[in-house]
Fold each of these.
Amino acid sequence: MAIAGEKNKYRAIVKQQLGDAELFESINSTQISPPYRIKGTMSRNAFGDTTANIIDGIDSLLESGDIIKTDRATTVAKTRISDRDVIIKRYNNQGFLNSLKYTLAGSRARRVWRETHLLQQLNIATPTALGYFDVLHKGRVIRSYLINEFCPEPILHYLLLDKLIPINDWPKIVGLVRELLCDLHGKGVTHGDIKHSNIIYERGKLILIDLDSLIIHRTTKSLQRHIKKDLSAFERKINSDPEEYIKRKKIELNISD
Ligand SMILES: Nc1ncnc2c1ncn2[C@@H]1O[C@H](COP(=O)(O)OP(=O)(O)O)[C@@H](O)[C@H]1O
Ligand SMILES: [Mg+2]
């Protein structure tokens, strides 16, 4: 694909799509969670409840859900909103400088929200993003949230750890990841964090998640450099001995048979 030309076409489609007021509600309000300003976009059809209720109650939703992962940077939980299983990713407050950076450059949630729609336009499977919003205090983004559709199928990590496939089938999965990367890279995009926990396996197909380090490249030079990084992660992590992976993870996670 010619990097700049085609990409601009898709960006324009996404811009138009996200600007469609019938499909998406654009939020810029100090009324929902005072004293904070809330800025974001939410899908209109995804939830029965009102956007304001979801936004105001997002932390209790997150904390009462199944917390999948939490660290300084993000907290990820599976929960239900209006009878729909969703994944909420909270980009935590990481201090003044980070907050300033995301205020000036745009938040991670906002970027991933747009990139998700773009990937879908490019026909790369990734869970549908249902909404995102930033929480601003005194003009600065202090935390953000991304709400994604939940995919019930396992990540590659569990394919191996829970023995969901015979170990001899692993080379087929490796082949699928190779094809996925080839497709992605051919479209001028790199993922930046290729590993077992960022790819979902759904009946012979792969779904790419965790788009935080995704780049849609504008120049061939930067594309080539980042393709190398993706391929090196692929070789080191995915295209490695699956028995070794299971053994190492069991030690890391303190699991015995
Ligand atoms: N849409 C989704 N459907 C199902 N599981 C998901 C989804 N998004 C994330 N997860 C699960 O949550 C984990 C952490 O999410 P991820 O976006 O990778 O966060 P992090 O940046 O902390 O790695 C993933 O490894 C996966 O197990
Ligand atoms: Mg991840």
Note: The longest strand covers residues 140-149.
Amino acid sequence: MRIALHTGKGGVGKTTISAATAIACAMGGARTLLVSTDPAHSIADVLGVAVDGDPTEVPGVPNLWAAQVDTRGRFEQSWSHIRGYLVGVLAARGMAEVQAEELTVLPGAEEIVALLELRRLAESGDFDAIIVDCAPTGETLRLLALPETIGFYAQRLLGAPQRVLRSIAASLTGLPGSAPNATVRDALGELLAELMAARALLADPAITGVRLVLTPERMVVAEARRLFTALSLHGFRVEAVTVNRLLPPHVGGEFLRRQREGQREAMTQVEESFQGLPIRRVLQTPVEPIGLQRLSEMAVDMFAAAGYHVVAVTGKADQRDWLTHLGAAEILPREAVSLADTPNPRPLLPAKWAGALDNVGGATLEALVRSTQTGGNVALCGLVGGADYRGTVMPFILRGVGLLGITSSNTAMPVRQHLWQRLATDLRPRHLADVARTVPLEALPDEIDRMLAGQAFGRVVVPLA
Ligand SMILES: Nc1ncnc2c1ncn2[C@@H]1O[C@H](COP(=O)(O)OP(=O)(O)O)[C@@H](O)[C@H]1O
Ligand SMILES: [Mg+2]
């Protein structure tokens, strides 16, 4: 089970990004709970469905549940003993009950409840992933630091001699007091133990990761940086940064051009401040991303570059390290994905691939099309393996596999511009500089020899001007 906490300044898109993330997890097959600890009940607004205290299924997305922590109601349950005691003490001293109740409203009560609820949901065993939409920065920090703070006071309080407790009670009420009785001590001890367990769950890097959500603005980045430091000091693992509301590169006008410039500067700060952390980019959309349809689109965009288990196929065994560095999780030899040595291949092979990029064609393509999962696409952009294709229509009809031929010279300019812009922004390859080498024109014959000898890899750029 994994827990992902989304936090950041108010209004940066925590609820939106949490919802899109939860949809992506659910679509990927994980039993996912989207839960908000923010008293502003916004996940119902964003999803467009009713949400209450207990997890309810979100219609239209299999594997997705949503819940809104009912901080008030739950707090009354867990705090009632202790509160009853305090109210009793105060009332016995002649204070009006209503006034006493008011006095015993504890600051941080909502955070306490949120922590306990998270733990309850995590321990239920009903979910593989819990995506948490937290309250804005300050409250989240209070939430995460709470068990330490409470622990500090409670240990002193519980361990203190009666005499001291009486004087604390007296100082609270302004009247000579009595010490807390055994029930109160038990309740306090239990609550403390639960809070500590909840904290342990959230501080366990194998289970919980914090994701900072921010917008590309200097003040927001500065706050996120402080939050990052504070979280790290408290021992919480920050696992990713999501930059939301980036302006798309093609929207026009002087106003937007200047705004984009500011965003670019802020992005430089983001990259400097969060080195080593994955940085996800989410574009500003023209309409509010509300409802399952728009959130799903956002989810696909957000994780398209990051979410896949990439298997690389190569005929060059010495390229393993390089391919791993570029992001391949697994590397297979060319023969493993080829039907070159199979005289009568079956029309369908076990479905392995969610999708494939094929720059070889021929026997490789024949294998890929037969082993792509239902609804998956094979994009074809090369034919060194041959221009012939041996196969049946079965994968296309029975599995709805798509074969996408990639052509560049016949692609309309607006489509190209759109794709280039995305390749330069949200889909920008992480290791672009390592993919290509630049050689002078005179060195080209050597490169061609290497290519013919099957020793070339990556791309070769020849500057002509
Ligand atoms: N990428 C985006 N493009 C356009 N509007 C967005 C985007 N992300 C969030 N919004 C809008 O910004 C507002 C604040 O987002 P929200 O997720 O509620 O922020 P938070 O939870 O951090 O307060 C909402 O109206 C939301 O629809
Ligand atoms: Mg919110």
Note: Residues 137-159 form the longest helix (23 residues).
Amino acid sequence: MDLKEVDVELIVNGRRHKLRVGTNLSLLQVLRDRLGLTGTKEGCAAGDCGTCTVIMDGRAVLSCLVMAFQADGHAITTVEGLAAGKKLHPLQESFLEHGAVQCGYCTPGMLMSAKALLDADPAPDRETIKTAMSGNLCRCTGYFKIIDAVEGAARKIGPASTARGAAAGAATGSSKAGEGR
Ligand code: FES
Ligand code: FES
């Protein structure tokens, strides 16, 4: 079969990457093999396990099911984009605090699904968390600690960050309440 290549521009963790990619390559393959972002894991490569989850334009997507050319011009966040330098994201801190990481293979996908949830709903109830994370499989933890960790992160970044943002906004006239997340 004659495989075609196309030029794409991917905006990954705030950096623009111009690449020529085969039309048969998934976003997952390009992130890992071309950009060296191996934090995103391949499990089933068939849309069943969630371990390849990244955020594209604010929504959690399975990067094994998105073709690289479909991501052209879109903003993508991978697990490498979570921490701010050496400062872990509150979700990462909470996963460690709650013992929600064992072998760690599912963890990048779990974190990205959880981030998409908390970005959309900073104070989800437990059932909402379970539903949002239901596409992410874990063979080690039994899930309870992961749900606890997401709840813990929501407590860290939800009301507190809203209050901080409101206070900062009142002081400076700024509307960037979510800044610093
Ligand atoms: S590797 Fe993408 S859903 Fe399993
Ligand atoms: S921690 Fe091992 S698969 Fe989830």
Note: The pocket of FE2/S2 (inorganic) cluster (ligand 1) is lined by residues 42-45, 47-52, 62, 64 (CB under 6 Å).
Amino acid sequence: MRIISTGAAVRVGRLLGIPIYLHWSFLVLITGYATVSGLRGGVLDAALTLVGSTALFGSVLLHELGHAMAARFYGIRTAHISLYPFGGVAAMEGMPGEPRHEMVVALAGPAVNFGLAVLFGAGFVLTSAMPWAWMALLNVMMGLFNLIPAFPMDGGRVLRALLSWKWGFVQGSQVAIAIGRGFAVLFVAGGLAFGAWNVVLVGGFLWFAVHIERRRLDQMVARERAWIASLNRRFNPVYVVNTQKCRDFSER
Ligand SMILES: [Zn+2]
């Protein structure tokens, strides 16, 4: 394991050709947890906490690898996978070209969790040891949580793919983004109402992620309009209709 520091994240290795990074806060959190349980219950508790956190974030890592492998199947490279205390990110170097592909890439992550749940469940059946059952349950929860249709979470990407099928990519994305914002507000408000601070944080992260996706979409539309305008200047009538369509989308 070669550790190279790159600012906020630390590179810990490479899996299936993809560099894996851990955010520093993640390392602090795990060490902190292990130290606290070590002080309370001794070395064994500390070791169990370390094993538990590693298994949990191993599941997150495999979830992200699921996305990355599905994307690779469609010819999209993944620059790196980064793990944060609130989950992982597979940084893909492109977008799936078709809604169907986006749907498969989005579903691949939760599918890995459900597969792992079956494996951990089998471990529990064979050994009757509770940690297997906990890991199975955690993976089911992770898979289900990611399927919430809050764009840009996995379920939201499935929703965007479905909407793009119906209305085209730009309008489909805009609706998915609006729904994602709605979920972010819901998480923050619900978290505040019930004093669940982790839900508030998830809502905050979601709001931020939606904002990034919105900007990415705007940039894409602007690039497309510039490209169509340049084609119009060169070739004219054929593309005039498209320019209008693109403008309609971006102004909605
Ligand atoms: Zn995912």
Note: Residues 149-252 form one domain.
